[in-house]
Amino acid sequence: MSSTPRGVRWITAGLLGVALCGCSSPTAGTGGDSGGSSSTGSAADGPDVPAFAADLERVCTDGLGYPGLPAYDRAKKTVHPAMLMNKSGDDWSQSEPSAGDYPKGWFLGYSAKPARAELVVCVERTKATATGKVCDMEGDGGKPFKVRTYNTSYLLKVVEARTGKELYRHAGEARSDECPVYMLTSEGEDADKYYNEVRPGDFRKNVRPFIAP
């Protein structure tokens, strides 16, 4: 699942590097992740709306919506834009599905304003279980190292962005007995562990009834 970590380490056969995503330090009006951000709006200047995608964490964790966001009406035969939020470690961050995973317009991208969201799709890793498999990998300069793989359990929720009302909940698992071709590890994560994660395309059938016309 694509995400916006501040520091990403890419490990594959003979390749190790660091990529910085500009989405991790957005300016107001963008849809990227931003730690320490706060929502805009007050009783004085209008209804509460999220300034950054990270502000939607409260929708996923506490069911607290933003009154300034567009109302969700499932009966309307139109696409209901959603923001995809992912939590695999300690923090929530926006994710953007790869091109082709979903029809255009279903999920808001990193450059979109979070204030357009009618829905928030929350995907949270709830458990990791060692598979017992150890994979041989190569890092910088071809230096070999080993990686232990983990199956994961996750919780998927579809929530109204405006009201915080939970519309759907699904618990699932991501399992695999294969070694990774490459690894993307967020800053602070162990480089010798690989977690099998649910991919956006894996829950397409779960969210379609709420987003699609």
Q: TL;DR?
A:
This protein has 213 residues and is mainly beta.
Present the secondary structure layout.
Blueprint: E1 8-12, E2 15-19, E3 40-42, E4 46-49, H1 57-62, E5 82-87, E6 93-95, E7 119-138, E8 144-160, E9 166-174, E10 182-186, E11 193-195, H2 204-211
Parallel strand pairs: 5-7, 8-11
Antiparallel strand pairs: 1-2, 1-10, 3-4, 5-6, 7-8, 8-9
What can you tell me about this protein's structure?
This protein has 213 residues and is mostly beta strands. Helix content is 7%, strand content 38%. The protein has helices at residues 57-62, 204-211, and strands spanning 8-12, 15-19, 40-42, 46-49, 82-87, 93-95, 119-138, 144-160, 166-174, 182-186, 193-195. The strands form three sheets. Strands 5, 6, 7, 8, 9 and 11 form a six-stranded mixed sheet that branches. A hairpin with a 5-residue loop joins strand 8 (144-160) and strand 9. The longest helix has 8 residues, at 204-211. The protein is elongated, with a radius of gyration of 18 Å.
Largest β-sheet summary = 6 strands, mixed
* Cα distance spanning the termini: 25 Å
Radius of gyration over alpha carbons?
A: 18 Å
Number of helices: 2
Helix content: under 10%
Strand content: 35-45%
Q: How many DSSP E strands?
A: 11
Order of helices and strands: EEEEHEEEEEEEH
Poorly predicted tracts of residues = 1-43
Provide the structure class. mainly beta
Tell me, rounded to a whole number, the average pLDDT. Answer: 81
Global outline: elongated
